[in-house]
Amino acid sequence: MKGQDLRFSFFFFFFFERDKCFNPFKYLILLLSEPLCLADCFALQEASELRRKVLILDLEAPSAKGTKWGLGGSGVNSDSVRRLLHQACILGKSIKDSEKYGWSFKEPARPGWAELLEAVQQQVACQSQALKADMRSCGLFYLQARGAMLAPHTVEATDVDGRRSTLSAETVVIATGDRPQYVDVPGGRELCLTSDDLFALPRSPGRTLVVGGTAEGLECAGFLSGLGLRVTVLPQPELLPGFDRGIAEMVENHMLVHGVDYMHHHSLSKVRRAEDVCVLCQAATNILHTVLLAVGRKACTSDIGLERVGVKCSPDTGRILVNDRDQTSVDHVYAVGSVQHGRPSTTGLSVHAGRLLARRLYRGDDIVCDYSSVPTVVFTPLEYAACGLSEERANLTFGQDNIEVYHDYYWPLEWTIPGRDKNSCYVKVVCHIPNNERVLGLHVMGPNAGDIVQGFVAAMKCGLTKQQLDATVGLHPVFSYVS
Question: Would the pTM count as exceeding 0.70?
Answer without folding.
Answer: yes
